[in-house]
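If you are new to this repository, start here. Below is one unmodified record pulled from the training split, so you can see the exact layout before writing a loader.
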Amino acid sequence: MNTPHLNRKLVLEAPMRSADGAGGYTETWAAMGTLWAEVTARSGAERQIAGASVSRVGFRIVVRGAPMGSSVRPAPDQRFREGNRCFVIRAVAEHDPRGKFLTCFADEEVAA
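And here is the target side for that same chain:
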């Protein structure tokens, strides 16, 4: 197994919910830390959502491993941010048997 080339700086963000005063909530994103990553495109598709065309691209994002429960260990429904780009994490798995690296399967959606 080749060692991943961690050459992109990504910010790990987690959703934070706050009461909106009307019985609902608003969702914002809080930075959890900065991680170096290897980002590889997997597949892409285009679909219609509410009459708008949305392009979705899947990515495999490899980062250094972190213990379960660590605030810098990525988890599903968190996201990575790189400038204006956001990669929503769908699943996380150990990249190697020793857990030195983690593989995150993420989607980037862009409205056309």
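Two things worth knowing about this chain: The longest strand covers residues 25-49. The chain has a mean pLDDT of 89.
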